[in-house]
Design brief:
Layout: H1 13-25, H2 31-74, H3 78-110, H4 117-140, H5 142-145, H6 148-189, H7 197-296, H8 307-316, H9 327-353, E1 357-363, H10 371-387, E2 394-400, E3 411-414, H11 424-441, H12 453-464, E4 472-477, E5 483-484, E6 487-488, H13 492-496, H14 500-505, E7 515-520, H15 529-546, E8 549-554, H16 563-566
Parallel strand pairs: 1-2, 1-4, 4-7, 7-8
Antiparallel strand pairs: 2-3, 5-6
């Protein structure tokens, strides 16, 4: 922290100013020299403070570069890491359910409470080791587990085993009911005459046979449950560990990057504070000196009756004008006024020459399945090109694809600065631009399997920065159902989980100050009224955060209602 020459931190401005003033009152003629030496001493101290800060900054920059290189080589966004973490938690829940099913089935079938303690420990260890064995199998044969067909096969085995267990349980319940009824009949015939003893013996033999069969059926049923649970537990544990490990690695890198960026900001603040400390001290000491001099030497204009002063003014030149102002002040005010006028004129010329920019976005995703809608959007773009009359206006047409930010520009042309005699040059440009557009649109079709609207708006912001002083207009022909970067607005759940604050933190909300926006073609096909209204509310708030003015959000593509507003 920069300090004054008295060793006091610069926190209390009033106390520091009072001390500086008192110090200069006693400094006398050596005030300037003392001030210069104090400032030079502060510069040396600042150099000592800056040396370790610069070394630390170099290490921080190297660490940031290493983290960014690792993140780029990984090719994963922070949103994908959070998605993997959510999937890992889901697999964790399924693993717990499968493990409980396996343990419950084995414990129920083995009647663990009737076993000795060491046998209970051996049984539980066998269950855990079997699940770990399955997980080890899946890890060693990871290339098989990653294949969809193998995973389907494993899931089918688990489902079949569990279904067999459920069917066995049902049959077991029916059989137990039959045995119970036979035992009831046996108890009824007991105690009768000796002639019924043969019947009693035959009935008892049947009960014993059925009980043996039921014991075997119970073991098989529980075995099916255990097998199904083992497969499910091993597979879910493998998927859980895989997703959580991936999420921990990705999110750990982004967390480390954020921490190092915060440290860089703090390091930059400390360096700036150390660099400016001597200059601030110089200004504080100079201000105190001037304050003392102003209090001790009050200068007043000479009186009109003082002949000696008048004679001195004639000899040395008239210092004051007729109204008491000095000639230097008059010259200074004149120069300031002239500069202000030139600045105003320069700003007016720059404003007059500032070119307008019109960016048009056309949705090329497969969600625009109706061929007539896509063709209508291309025709509307041609109408926009025809309607441009302002000199220097730039018209840019971008495609909304699965990678909108990196997609090439479809059309880019500028209205000539001079319209020519009777508008001939403007008309020639219009014909040439329409011909160019018609040639370009022949190769366009709605074949993209994604619609990255976030990337399109970021690309439009880059284009608007080329001429920030002109009028900026953005027309979007799209259903505004963003699909990409981990978000899917085609479904209500995908729209419900998005948060604009999270998008701002990820840098997905571009700066579009002063841009007027028209969203046309946000049709309602396949959406409920509530889903469409949520879609409209989200984009209204998103564009408001971007600094734009949303003129229209409509399912139609008609432009005539907004002609005056756009002009």
């Amino acid at each position: 922290m920069a300090r004054s020459i008295f060793g006091r931190p610069r926190g209390s401005e009033t106390e520091a100013q009072g001390t500086t003033i008192q110090w200069f009152k006693g400094a006398g003629r050596n005030a300037d020299g003392i001030r210069d030496h104090a400032v030079q001493a502060a510069r040396h101290k600042a150099a000592i403070e800056l040396a370790p800060l610069r070394v630390e900054r170099r290490y921080l920059d190297e660490g940031e570069a290493t983290l960014r290189q690792e993140i780029n080589s990984l090719g994963r966004t922070e949103a994908s890491g959070k998605h993997k973490r959510r999937e890992g938690r889901i697999w964790l829940t399924l693993f717990i359910f499968a493990l409980l099913l396996t343990v419950g089935s084995v414990l129920w079938g083995s009647q663990i409470m009737e076993l000795s303690p060491w046998k209970q420990c051996i049984l539980l260890s066998a269950i855990v080791l079997s699940v770990a064995g399955f997980e080890g199998f899946f890890r060693n044969f990871r290339h098989l587990v990653e294949q969809p067909e193998f995973r389907k096969w494993m899931v089918n085995i688990s489902v079949v085993a569990v279904l067999c267990g459920i069917l066995g349980s049902a049959c077991l319940a029916v059989s137990r009911g039959l045995v119970t009824s036979m035992e009831a009949k046996q108890s009824q015939i007991q105690g009768f005459s000796d002639s019924d003893s043969a019947r009693e013996t035959e009935q008892l033999n049947k009960i014993q046979k059925i009980s043996s069969i039921l014991d075997i059926a119970m073991v098989l049923t529980l075995l099916c449950f255990a097998v199904g649970g083992e497969f499910a537990a091993g597979l879910t544990f493998f998927k859980m560990r895989l997703n959580l490990a991936h999420a921990a690695h990705v999110l750990g890198l982004y967390r480390a990057l954020r921490n190092i960026q915060k440290t860089i900001v703090e390091n930059e603040r400390e360096q700036e504070e150390a660099r400016l400390g001597p200059e601030i001290l110089h200004e504080e000491l100079t201000a105190g000196k001037l304050y003392v001099e102003d209090q001790e030497e009050e200068r007043t204009p000479p009186e009109a009756g003082d002949s000696e002063v008048i004679e001195m003014e004639r000899t040395n030149g008239n210092r004051f004008g007729h109204d008491g102002r000095s000639v230097g002040a008059t010259i200074r005010n004149t120069i300031i006024g002239f500069i202000a006028i030139m600045v105003v004129l320069g700003g007016s010329v720059a404003w007059a020459l500032a070119a307008d920019t019109v960016v048009v976005g056309v949705d090329r995703s497969t969600s625009s399945q109706v061929e007539s809608e896509f063709k209508d959007s291309l025709d509307k773009v041609e109408e926009i090109i025809k309607s441009q009359k302002n000199p220097g206006t730039r018209i840019v047409v971008l495609g909304i694809t699965k990678d909108s930010f990196g997609s090439p520009i479809i059309f880019d042309d500028t209205v000539p600065l001079e319209s020519g005699r009777l508008g001939q040059r403007l008309e020639a440009w219009r014909l040439r631009a329409i011909k160019k557009w018609r040639a370009r649109k022949e190769s366009l079709n709605p074949s993209e399997n994604g619609s990255d609207i976030f990337g399109f708006l970021s690309r439009a912001a880059v284009i608007f920065e080329d001429d920030p002083n002109g009028k900026k207009q953005l027309l979007v022909f799209s259903d505004m159902r963003h699909v990409g970067q981990g978000y899917n607005f085609e479904i209500a759940k995908g729209l419900a989980k998005v948060r604009i604050d999270e998008l701002e933190a990820q840098g997905i909300v571009p700066k579009l100050q002063g841009v007027k926006v028209w969203i046309l073609g946000a049709h309602t096909n396949g959406l409920s009224p509530a889903h469409w209204m949520k879609l409209k509310d989200f984009w209204s708030e998103y564009l408001k955060r971007s600094g734009t003015e949303l003129i229209m959000f409509s399912p139609s593509r008609r432009l005539q209602e907004n002609t005056n507003e756009r002009q």
